[in-house]
Amino acid sequence: MKYAINVDVALYRGDEWLLIVRGLNEEHAAGRLSLVGGTVDTDTPGGGDVLLDTARREVLEEIGIDMAGVPLAYAESVFFVTDTGNPVINVVLAAELPACAKPRIASPEEVAGLRWETLPSLELDESCPAWTLQGVQRAATALGRTPAV
Predict the structure, then answer these.
(1) What is the pTM of this model?
(2) End-to-end CA gap in the chain
């Protein structure tokens, strides 16, 4: 069985996480709240770590932010099947978004909207898919942003 490999990036600034609303024509989870990300391509530039290079490429393509030099932390990897039945291994990385970065919709076909949300607000948001919430929760842990219990 062949799997697609997807890389998502959970971006944090202040006490909020940057999420996207997926484009309405996306093959999987169209119109749903999601992390920035996409599929590993064989022609991903960089020549280094394919997951980090994919993460940086997707952030640039979708929200116009150059992540060169920004550390990316591993948060989680999961398996899922898309709405069309394709198996995917999904890797979530986490990063602090630089204060000077100004996210924008750079790819309207892929991104219908941008939202800044706190983790507590996401936990109460019934429209937030479970996988998006889990990715943010794991990213918070990876960045040491999990509130003490």
Answers:
(1) 0.90
(2) 41
